Amino acid sequence: MSLADRNTRDFFRLSTLLLGSTMTVMAGATIAPALPQISAFFQDMPHAKLMVKLLLSIHALFIALSAPFMGMLMDRYGRKPVLLISVALYGVSGSSGFFMDSLYGIILGRAFLGISVAGIMSGFTTLIGDYFSGEERNKVMGLQAAFTGFGGLLFVSMGGLLADFSWRYPFLIYLFAFVVWPGVAAFLHEPLISNTDPDSASSPGEVPKVPAKLVILIYLSAFFGMLVFYAVPVQLPFHMKGMGGISNVEVGIALGLMNLIGALSSTQFKRIKQKLSYSGIYVLFTLLMGIGYLAIYLTTSYWVILCGLAVAGVGFGLLMPNVNVWLVSFVPASVRGKFVGGLATSFLFGQFVSPLILEPLVRQIGVGACFGLIGALLLAVTAGLLLYNNKRVMA
Length: 395
Fold this sequence. Notes:
Blueprint: H1 3-29, H2 35-41, H3 48-54, H4 58-77, H5 79-95, H6 103-131, H7 134-163, H8 177-187, H9 193-196, H10 212-229, H11 231-243, H12 248-266, H13 269-273, H14 278-298, H15 302-328, H16 336-365, H17 367-394
Helix pairs in contact: 1-6, 1-7, 1-8, 4-5, 4-6, 4-16, 5-6, 5-8, 6-7, 6-16, 7-12, 7-15, 10-15, 10-16, 11-12, 12-15, 14-15, 14-17, 15-16, 16-17
């Protein structure tokens, strides 16, 4: 193969990895603008409003439950076969809502969508860990997080536009999977595990050794990060509407700004990693998120809230590439799929339980005070991590 052909193939391989990664974030929010119309269409069904709201959360539960099993399947049968099946299932199950007249059927489709996303989320991240190493891996992981953020903006916007015509049309966006599928088939190859990670490869029959405490720490970091982040899309709209004089469009701009800033921040992960350790970057995440959330709590100005979201967005943009790279940097390639699947579960479980944990607080102290409490907690975590790291240096 000539150098030009190799470069072209590498380009399409990277494009497939990045475009495929956008499918994870579009899984839930793409149909959000159509929920009121779906609720109206099925209004004669018992508990219709509750069931329609499940359309946005049921997939997250199934991602969290199935991601570790998807990872184990990848380690046993290969990354590419599981990805090919997952991407195809994504397109079929995601678009099924366009054809169905049964709300139960749509919910079932969303459950299968969650299973497919578990395979996609674990698969593309695992392959990035397999294909790349060192500074190149840091760069690609940052690009992956950035594409995820930009993809969220694009697909949610498209969902809103299509929902103006019919609540069914946003479901067609999931057919994007069949644009990605040929790239998976043609440009992604099954990595040679023994050559991909020579430093961590194990002898035949030997059980790879993985530092369990560090893995648990990374999982908890991902869980906590997603738990506090999800206060923004779930709780902030109610806080802003309660302030008065803020339109739905302005709420959408505010939420989109944080995603946009987060995506831009992710692209800088490689440079930041050259100066900070993984734990140092997590400290930066908690610090910036804490400052941003306290700004939201302390103001009634829409513009100050935007500034707070921008600061928090810079921090959030560093979370996903940091924990992803941190994990794949030491997990042996032969079991990487399983552990990346566990990381996906941590992210999604944090997302799933965030409303359940925060809602009682919101009822007791209000939405604004809840952001203040989370901000104070994040700064306390920042101080604790700095103190702990300083003691380790001095010891």
